[in-house]
Amino acid sequence: MTTTRKFADIPGISAHTIEALSKKGILETFPIQALVLDDALQGRDILAKAPTGSGKTFAFAIPIIERITADAAIPSSVVLVPTRELCVQVVEEFEILLADSDIEVAPVYGGTNLETQAKRAASAHVLVATPGRMLDLINRGLIDLGNVHTFVLDEADRMLDMGFQPQTDRIEAAIPKDRHTMFFSATLDGRAGRIAKRYTNDALRFEVERPEGQETDIEHRFVKVGRGTKMATLVEILEAESEKPGLTLIFSRTKRGADSLNRDLNARGIPTEAMHGDMPQNVREKTLAKFEKGELKMLVATDVAARGLDLDDITHVVHFDAPDDRADYVHRSGRTGRAGRTGIATCLILDEDEYVMGRVAEDLGLEEQYLAAGLRIIPPRMAYSGKGTNGTRRLAGWGSKQINTHKRPGPRR
């Protein structure tokens, strides 16, 4: 089992960084930091498998700032992240380390004035960016990555899942090959693993799983609902949570659904706000700030909007719309039960959700809780996802494969 270390005991970390961390009461590493920092500070390429919320940011931020001087060519380092919210959070953690420093860090993400953002980016040593906006700046000739010596991909698996590989490939190609690369991901298998090997050179691999027993920090609840009872069940859950301390995050599958659910909850006297990708960035930031401060206790969000919401005070996650797969369920539920605290993840399940959620429950060893809720684990050959727009029925979990409504599906081949 990986142990923590004191930052002051790690060679290569400056007194300035130690002092900046100490002012925030940060004296010891998380396990991923303890593993990675020695080699990262020496400029070795890193492949790190670690779950969201495991302390990855300081694992790459400290080596970046310790290897930059104020007179270095700019930008010297690029950190790619999948979402605007995570971009803002990573910049904030860099700013902890850079207190009273001449080194500058700048966020680069869509939804804000491009020229203003480009001007700030042009004078920064470290750019923390989402792929789309970064590529936009490159294509417009507003930023040149020819002097970059450190390249980081954070939450790389999610970045690929969101369809950003073409952009990341083009950004990577604009950065000199003679560089320091660090790749952080919840998985190093499949596409993420192939991209990691292509981007790095003789990289050292590190893996940190969630601490033993941490899974029990999240209590998983499954609730069988009908379309006519789903909203009433949600209201009952939220009314019970309103009397407790902590924040509640409610997941909707779509942007339109998030807006509609938010209106319905407000009409029923439940004070919520919505957050999704179609909202103006300043509105998203204002909403997130209210949620983080506890001024807003309940937030309705889509999966993408909630990526990077690493708030220790989220005590309850509600899947109003059941997730599409295991990865989404784990990501959503992982917004609670953080920093060793206890959290609750409640999933409302309609009949058509049972096939996918049955597989999820099996994969995560949650069959007992799932079956106790009166839900079914449906064999693949019996699973339908409901009617399509042309009157056909689709086999649940099999994408858009359509079958004759008058025949039972045979085994998938």
What does this structure look like?
The chain is an alpha/beta fold. It has two domains: 7-207, P-loop containing nucleotide triphosphate hydrolases (Rossmann fold); 214-378, P-loop containing nucleotide triphosphate hydrolases (Rossmann fold), CATH 3.40.50.300. It is 37% helix and 16% strand. It contains 16 helices and 15 strands. It has helices at 15-23, 31-41, 56-66, 84-97, 114-121, 131-139, 156-161, 165-173, 190-199, 230-241, 255-267, 281-293, 303-306, 326-333, 354-363, 367-372, and strands spanning 46-49, 77-80, 105-108, 126-129, 150-153, 180-185, 204-207, 218-224, 247-251, 273-275, 298-301, 314-319, 343-349, 393-394, 402-403. The strands form three sheets. Strands 3-4-2-5-6-1-7 form a seven-stranded parallel β-sheet, with helices on both faces. Strands 8-13-12-9-11-10 form a six-stranded parallel β-sheet, with helices on both faces. It has a two-stranded antiparallel sheet with strand order 14-15. Strand 3 (105-108), helix 5 and strand 4 form a beta-alpha-beta unit. Helix 2 packs parallel to helix 3, helix 3 crosses helix 4 (84-97) and helix 6 packs across helix 8. The radius of gyration is 23 Å and the shape is globular. The chain starts with 14 loop residues before the first helix and ends in a 10-residue tail after the last strand. Residues 211-216 and 383-413 have low confidence and may be disordered.
